[in-house]
What we know:
Layout: E1 3-4, E2 7-10, E3 14-16, E4 35-37, E5 39-44, E6 47-53, H1 54-60, E7 61-62, E8 65-68, E9 73-76, E10 78-80, H2 92-99, H3 104-109, H4 114-123, H5 126-142, E11 145-151, H6 158-174, E12 178-186, H7 195-210, E13 216-221, H8 228-240, E14 244-249, H9 257-263, E15 268-271, H10 277-286, E16 289-292, H11 294-299, H12 308-313, E17 318-320, H13 334-343, H14 349-356, H15 358-362, E18 381-384, H16 389-394, E19 401-406, E20 409-410
Parallel strand pairs: 1-7, 2-8, 3-9, 10-11, 11-12, 12-13, 13-14, 14-15, 15-16, 16-17
Antiparallel strand pairs: 2-5, 3-4, 5-6, 9-18, 18-19, 19-20
InterPro entries: Amidohydro-rel (IPR006680), HutI (IPR005920), Metal-dep_hydrolase_composite (IPR011059), Metal_Hydrolase (IPR032466)
Pfam families: Amidohydro_1 (PF01979)
Organism: marine sediment metagenome
Amino acid sequence: MAIRADMLVMNCTRLLTLAGPSRPRIGDEMNDLGEVESGAVVITDGKILETGPAEQLNAKYDCPQRINAAEGIIMPGLVDCHTHAIFLRPRADELAQRAAGVPYLDILAAGGGIYSTVRSVLAAGREHLRWETQNRLDAMLAHGTTTVEIKSGYGLNLETERKMLQIAGFLDRRHPMDIVATFLGAHVVPENMDRAAYVDFLVDEALGELKGLAEFCDVFCDAEAFTLDEARRIFSAALEQGYKLKIHAGQFTDMGAAGLAAEFGAVSADHLEHVSDEQLAQMHDCGTLAVLLPGAALYLMSETYADARRMIDAGVPVAVATDFNPGSCPCFSMQMMISLACLKLKLTPAEAVTAATINAAYALDRGDRVGSLEPGKQADLIIVNTIDERELACHFGVNNVRTVIKAGKVV
């Protein structure tokens, strides 16, 4: 007698389960996508019940809802583990400035860049910000992203940082996507404020006041942002308050931030265009993931991209994300990041898919719940209009996703 279940997703050319060890994938493991030819996925109560050959599962289960993959590929929902998605409008004027040769850090030092977005977010009403963010999440979901991290950091005062994190929490409860909130009060020092006083504010007040609204604490440790000593102090206070840690490291200069991430057991160090072999060894030893953001390097017209192959060879687990934000990467497509991971970071298509799914899930401490299609995990999967992951990587600039299933429901 057939077993009752809610949904059967079948008739694909390839099922990419990403099944594997209960940890981030490293080295050549990133090329193993857990492929099942002509596979299927059985779902019940929003969870994955079983994966395997479609012929066997079709006979074994009685499912009232059957989803036809129509010869596409079935794979895990994409996980975007680094975004700044709460803002009003992109900073379109800065693109022309950079095209004219003005570096990003010069724009920031002149009061543009992050400061420009801070001024607009400070002036924005809560509902306006929420509406803009919700529309972006709708578009991200339609492009296959089922879990997303969202940082604060465009308020730089207690009231506005709280507003941003509350919007993230509200949308996590109301939107189909899972949202992981990160407190990034240490984005830049506010204009016309003493930097020592601002670090004191973060350590002595903000981290405690906001700890119930954010899971992670992040620090932008780079030129024109925060020093290594300041980041160390903020990390120490964040750990005492129960935050997990992330860091913006080595985007423009190597200040040793990746090593600091390893020292404090941070879940991830992000960007890493500039990082030493010694720091990579430290990241490997403590299990800190490298989150690479090729979209930011592309949009900033940089000639320097993260050396992903060096990281993989060092045994560091690599994830990719969009860095979706209004100024340095106004792109929310994780599909595009898979393409850029191949074109600019020199990953194989299989490595890029791993970096955008299971490793990205571990970069949010969600690897036990999402990022792969394994029994007991949340049923987050997408059906893609390609025959394999290579075609997904090469067919860039379009939405290849046909169907999104989030927690067992077609959305």
